[in-house]
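Notes to self after the call with IL:
- keep both proteins in one doc
- input above output, always
- annotate only the second one for now

Protein 1:
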Amino acid sequence: MAMLEWTEKSSAVLQQGGVIGPDERLPWPQTAVMGVQHVIAMFGATVLAPILMGFDPNLAILMSGIGTLIFFVITGGKVPSYLGSSFAFIGVVIAASAYAGKGPNTNLGVALGGIIACGVLYTLIGFVVQAVGTGWIERVMPPVVTGAVVAVIGLNLASIPIKNMAASNFEAWMQVLTFVSVALVAVMARGMLQRLLILVGLAVASVIYALLTNGLGLGKPMDLAGIASAAWVGLPAFAAPVFSTNAMLLIAPVAIILVAENLGHIKAVTAMTGKNLDVYMGRAFIGDGIATIVSGSAGGTGVTTYAENIGVMAATKIYSTAVFVVAALIAVLLGFSPKFGALIQAIPLPVMGGVSIVVFGLIAVAGARIWVVNQVDFSDNKNLLVAAITLVLGTGDFTLKFGQFALGGIGTATFGAILLYALLNRKKPDDTVKVQQFSADPPKAG
């Protein structure tokens, strides 16, 4: 009876456009539809990351679902998150496995061993946080740092749809049509239709694309032949890890980036829902770490809480963790379906690119929201410079090499923000003068 009343209350809030909290439940049909939208939101990045590293995309989808279920159980269903393939692993995995960039990764095993080592380190950090709290992490990574890191993830990924998902002027215009469709649904629609802005926008843009290409011959037509020929059920390509000391030392430090990502994501959800999720931070790290270990053990990529899905939550105002259970179960089923892979492959690349522009932009804005909610003072030069430098390092994909080890844009931005804040966060003399930023008004007297 209590559950029935809870569902009815949540349904009423939904119709009024209010926030559905992590511990609230929608009617199951609406929960299922929202789960589908989250699968679509995570799909592009979760598939793209393994392709860039030479992993099996179907296995990555399967392990993202299993990882999300592990995360849900370990956090007690209190933290709304979807776990997908982490882009933070790409540079170090390519370096550790000497991947040539095309086709299957023939040296996949050593990368998997490094991913497992990263998961172990990440899990240990989670146990420390669970034991002593998040105070030490928050001192090292305050809101100005976590906000910048979250924003950088979205901005760093922005080049993927802009540069790699539109090969012609027609396809670039299709990207525009796609993100405009999503935006119009977000602003003009009401009720559940508005909540499904990503899914509806993608469907509308795909139909228009088919009419323009298959119907009018204006661009590359949609190819649906692969869907018909693909099997309904099939196993993905499982692989066994190989434990190489060099690869483990190269890949394990990615755990620091994952901590910053997860911390920033939880802070973002806390800010958007008004519910303090800090008490679950240690369990969230442990859940993510164990999910990464399990994924690497089966041949999958390292996983992380997905800002793409946080972007969907920000747009829909639905944070119910039950939605992610549905999304995870769908991903598990789809991981065993080559036909699903063929269906996704049939979605026009520029349409996926247009959706990616929206989702990656929402990630960047989620980082800025952390600054706003935590009232980060940008008249303080320390905060101003940490944010400014971090954003450019990440957006410009600034890379540092240490021998064979290459730290890409997200990594340099993450470590750079942490170290720069520590360097600048020293006690200043009492007579230090703050410089007024971005204001043409003279300082007030007195």
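Protein 2 (the one to annotate):
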Amino acid sequence: MALFITDECINCDVCEPECPNEAISPGEEIYVIDPKLCTECVGHYDTPQCKEVCPVDCILVDPEHEETREQLMDKYEVLMAQG
């Protein structure tokens, strides 16, 4: 599944540089995660790095974008081939 950032985000800027897929960007009010780019760090790390550094635990699994670990790995491979 892709991740998303809740409205509890304090705009601390620590998650954006941690994302290896550049899926996190500033939104109008809070940071947002592009589900097309988010692989939950599959292919890069064992755990989502944005969740590791978030001081308020406002990054959750997005139930609207359910994906298996295999699907996330496939997405990772496509993203790496494009980059």
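Annotation: The helical segments are 49-53, 69-82. The mean pLDDT is 96.
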